[in-house]
Fold:
Amino acid sequence: MANLEFNQNEDLNKQAVSELRKRLKRIYAGGGAKAVEKQHGKGKLLARERIAYLLDENKPWLEIGAFAADGMYPEYGGCPSAGVIAGIGYIADRQCVVVANDATVKAGAWFPMTAKKNLRAQEIAMENRLPIIYLVDSAGVFLPMQDEIFPDKEHFGRIFRNNARMSSEGIVQIAAIMGACVAGGAYLPIMSDEAMIVEGTGSVFLAGSYLVKSAIGESVDNETLGGATTHCEISGVTDYKHPDDKTCLESIRTLMGMLGKPKDAGFDRIKPALPKQDERQIYGILPPSREKPYDMKEIILRLLDHSEFEEYKALYGQSIVCGLGRVDGWAVGVVANQRNVVKNGKGEMQLGGVIYSDAADKATRFIMNCNQKKIPLVFLQDVTGFMVGSRAEQGGIIKDGAKMVNAVANSVVPKITIVVGNSYGAGNYAMCGKAYDPRLIFAWPSAKIAVMGGGQAAKTLLQIQKASLKAKGEAINKEKEEVLLKDITERYREQTTPYYAAARLWVDGVIDPLETRRVISLGIEAANQAPIEKPFNVGVIQT
Structure:
């Protein structure tokens, strides 16, 4: 399959993956060498070391939100991974969610994105009924930003609300206090089913010694106030006391090994098989330019077991490809944007990446069929939006688009979204963007996420800026207009990258395309532990 264009695509996509790994390596360094040395000097393991020790060896680990807060909070020195590590892994052969504060990053203090990331981890646990383990080591709310983290619905307090809801629903929560655990944050481990504490380094209290002194005049040290001895022997707040991090983590493994079996949602799985078409060829098939066409079916064949794809309505609504296949043994329904230019049954040309009325109609029916058959859905996004213009409007594109959005929004089977390329405007919604509750949503380095394409947006923004300057009496010559357009284009380009999206948790992470099958399989395995309880009902649908 080698040709000049294929080879060029392959080189550029491999460079993009190399850049991804370089960025991740920087993020994995956390707060840096000095902060690492400080934690080790206290006899503590680092957050990532704790997770590695806790998890089963040779089992997959899917990190969630590695890029959270990347490039944000520069005025405070940044906050790599939002100061907390989260993901899906296995403990004693049981799939679970693990959340660990990174004390090398601002002593594990909570920034606004820290709260958002913790809530996302809890959401994954709740949707999939996965046990969740908290490894707590945090100085509490980052006070300079308290107004952005404390009082709103999706802020800090929602975490404790979720603790209570998970407890009522029988979702196992185990917490280990392995460092500081202060103020409102103290409720998180104590609202878990079981809380353990590490002697000498772990402490939990509503107010530290300095605040106690200023509030009531009492002089007391933090160990006496809320250390392991106090809470395991006097207050009864914590359930287990351990001499060090490793013993504590081994205790969690023991508890996890005794859990009863999870329920089974009944999603179909047979013996896994690799694709017959070489997955690595994805690098050569996918063009680095987001404007260039390519055949999405060639990508699909390299993601499915045996490269077998049972395409649905293959000759109708061809700008969306729908069909059935398997990923790592799991039955899946694939909904993907076709990027090649196609011809409809009337011989009319249809642009790749655009959703037309016939494609929306087909996708809606297919999504409903998958819900009827209890087959999980996989969305592969490379969409520039819905077709526009008088012909499309008269053909009812809004009605057909609304129908597709309705089906996606009301689906009860698990949905997993991979942003392959463009993810623009209402196309993001129809193809199960973050607002439509995908169980997992990951992006390839080639992804672009925005309300519209960069060229269109930049020109629109330029017109707005020119009108604003004109209203102030400022004249714009051609040279200044070109400078403005360049600045606007660059700023907009930066805001559409997958890393910008991942920093804000619009996606759960950025992955090498070769990790896609693993992500989908782990996501469906997690979803299989949460039986579907709500009947599928689209309500009033546009016809």
Observations:
- Residues 4-28 form the longest helix (25 residues).
- The chain has a mean pLDDT of 91.
- The chain has 20 helices and 20 strands.
